[in-house]
TrEMBL record:
The lineage of its organism: Bacteria, Thermotogati, Deinococcota, Deinococci, Thermales. ATP binds at K234. A motif ('HIGH' region) lies at residues 45-54. Catalyzes the attachment of tyrosine to tRNA(Tyr) in a two-step reaction: tyrosine is first activated by ATP to form Tyr-AMP and then transferred to the acceptor end of tRNA(Tyr). It holds the Pfam family tRNA-synt_1b. One of its GO terms (biological process) is tyrosyl-tRNA aminoacylation. It comes from Allomeiothermus silvanus (strain ATCC 700542 / DSM 9946 / NBRC 106475 / NCIMB 13440 / VI-R2). The gene is tyrS. This is Tyrosine--tRNA ligase.
Length: 447
C-alpha cells in the first residue's frame, strides 16, 4: 500500500540522511507526477556479504517502496568481470561470471531482510549480463563518445592514480559507461549510491540522454565507516554483517567510537534529530551505545527489519528512550518497561541475552555460548601443539606470525590466563577456551 504523504512530505522523508540529490528539484517533480518511479541500485557481487553500511542505502530504498515505488536491484555480474576501482588505488581483481553468480545468490537472500522482495510491483532483480554481454562494438563506441579523457580523469581515484604514476587500464574507463548503460534498459528514474559512486551515477545521466531518455536523479548516500572510524572491511575486523548473530551485532555496535555515535544513530535508525540529541545528552556515551545496539541488533534479528527503527519500535522492544537512572555496574541509563508485542520473534529476549553476554564479557567472564572447533590428533606432536598454530587453527588469528605478535602484545589468553611465551606447547587433554582481546572466544578440543 502506498503512502498518503504529499510529494513535498515524501521528499522530506526521503532526503533525510542523504548527502546530495542531483538535481534536487527534479526528484520533487518526479514525485509530483503520480508515476510509479523505478529506483535502481547496482550491487557488485565481489563479496557475498551485506553489511550495515550497505543497509544505509537499502533502508532508503525501502522508504521508496513504502511510498509505492519500485526498486530494481541490478547484480553487476558482468561489470564485476571488469573490476570497478572506485575508492581504490589499484584495479579490483575481476571475477568469473560463475563466481559473481554464486556471490549474488547470497546477496539476494540478504536484501530480503530489508527490501520487500515478494511484491513484483515493488521489487525486481536483474543481472546486467542480460544486456551488456550482447552489446556490440558500435554501441560501445557510442557510449565511450559521451565523455572525454579529461572528464574521466576528474574522477578522484583515477586522478590520484594518474598523478601518482599508477597504471590505469583502458578497460577501467569502460566501467562507468557499463554501469550507466544499466539505467537504459530499465529506464531508471532514480539511481542510488554512496559518495564513492557519484561519478558513475552522473555518467548514467549522460548515457540516458544519449539514448533519448529522461535523465535519472542521482541519489547519493553517505558511506558508513566501521566502528573504529576506518572503512568498513573484514580485513580491519570492523565489519558488521546484517545476518550476523544478534549478540555479535550488539557487541560490535558497542565498540562504535563516541565521535561516530551521532552518525550511526542518524544512518542506522529512524530516530529524529531531537531524539538523537536527547539520547546523547541524557544517556551519555554508554546509554547512547545501548540504544543503538538494542535497536539495530533487535531489528536485524527479525526475518525482515521493520519499516522504521524509531522510538515506537524501541518502546515495543521494552525500553524507554528517556533517562531513568543509572545501573551501578554498567552505567546504563535505559530500563526495560514492557514485553515486545506484534512480532514473530521475541526480540526483547534476544536483545536481553545479547546484552547479558556483552556485560558478562565486559566484566571479564567467559560466555557459555561460544563455538567449538575440533582439532585433529594429527596436528599434535606427543600430545601437544604450538600455541601460535593452535590459535590459527581456531580461526582467532590469520597466521602463526600474527598469533606470535599478539602474544608479544599480551593479546591472547588460554582459559583466562595471558600467554607470554610464543613458543609455548599446549596440551589438549581437556577442552581449552582460547580468547583474543576482550571479547572473542573459541573452545578447542580433540576431534
Amino acid at each position: 500500500m502506498s503512502s498518503v504523504l504529499s510529494p513535498t512530505e515524501a521528499l522530506k522523508r526521503l532526503e533525510a540522511g542523504s548527502v546530495e540529490i542531483i538535481p534536487h528539484e527534479k526528484l520533487l517533480e518526479k514525485l509530483s507526477s503520480g508515476k510509479k518511479l523505478t529506483v535502481k541500485l547496482g550491487l557488485d557481487p565481489t563479496r557475498p556479504d551485506i553489511h550495515i553500511g550497505h543497509a544505509v542505502v537499502l533502508r532508503k530504498m525501502r522508504q521508496f517502496q513504502e511510498l509505492g515505488h519500485k526498486v530494481v536491484i541490478i547484480i553487476g555480474d558482468f561489470t564485476a568481470m571488469i573490476g570497478d576501482p572506485s575508492g581504490r588505488s589499484a584495479t579490483r581483481p575481476p571475477l568469473t561470471l560463475e563466481e559473481t553468480r554464486a556471490n549474488a545468490k547470497s546477496y539476494v537472500e540478504q536484501v530480503g531482510k530489508i527490501l520487500i522482495t515478494e511484491d513484483q510491483e515493488r521489487f525486481e532483480l536483474r543481472y546486467n549480463s542480460e544486456w551488456l554481454e550482447n552489446l556490440n562494438f558500435k554501441e560501445v563506441i557510442k557510449l565511450a563518445s559521451q565523455l572525454t579523457v579529461a572528464q574521466m580523469l576528474e574522477r578522484e581515484d583515477f586522478k590520484n592514480r594518474y598523478t601518482q604514476g599508477i597504471p590505469i587500464s583502458i578497460h577501467e574507463f569502460l566501467y562507468p559507461f557499463a554501469q550507466g548503460y544499466d539505467s537504459v534498459p530499465i529506464r531508471a528514474d532514480v539511481e542510488m549510491g554512496g559518495t564513492d559512486q557519484k561519478f558513475n551515477l552522473l555518467v548514467g545521466r549522460e548515457v540516458q540522454r544519449a539514448y533519448g531518455l529522461e535523465e535519472q536523479v542521482a541519489f547519493i548516500m553517505p558511506l558508513l565507516e566501521g566502528p573504529d572510524g576506518r572503512k568498513m572491511s573484514k580485513s580491519y575486523d570492523n565489519y558488521i554483517g546484517i545476518t550476523e548473530e544478534p549478540a555479535e551485532i550488539y557487541r560490535k555496535l558497542m565498540k562504535v567510537g563516541d565521535d561516530l555515535l551521532p552518525k550511526y544513530l542518524e544512518l542506522c535508525t529512524d530516530l529524529t534529530p531531537q531524539e538523537i540529541q536527547q539520547v546523547l545528552e541524557k544517556g551519555g556515551p554508554v546509554g547512547a551505545h545501548r540504544v543503538l545496539a538494542r535497536l539495530v541488533a533487535g531489528s536485524y534479528a527479525l526475518p525482515r527489519i521493520p519499516a522504521r527503527l524509531d522510538r515506537e519500535l524501541y518502546e515495543e522492544m521494552g525500553y524507554r528512550l528517556e533517562a531513568a537512572g543509572r545501573d551501578s555496574e554498567t552505567q546504563a541509563v535505559l530500563i526495560v518497561v514492557a514485553p515486545l508485542t506484534g512480532y514473530s520473534l521475541n526480540v526483547s529476549e534476544t536483545v536481553r541475552q545479547a546484552e547479558e553476554r556483552y556485560n558478562e564479557v565486559a566484566k571479564g567472564g567467559i560466555p557459555d555460548d561460544i563455538r567449538t572447533v575440533p582439532i585433529t590428533s594429527s596436528e599434535l606432536q606427543e600430545g601437544r601443539i604450538g600455541v601460535a598454530k593452535l590459535f590459527t587453527l581456531s580461526g582467532l588469528t590469520e597466521s602463526n606470525g600474527e598469533a606470535k605478535r599478539m602474544i608479544q602484545n599480551r593479546g591472547l589468553r588460554i582459559d583466562g590466563e595471558v600467554i607470554t611465551d610464543p613458543n609455548m606447547q599446549v596440551s589438549l587433554d581437556k577442552p581449552r577456551v582460547l580468547q583474543r582481546g576482550k571479547d572473542k572466544f573459541v573452545r578447542v578440543q580433540l576431534a
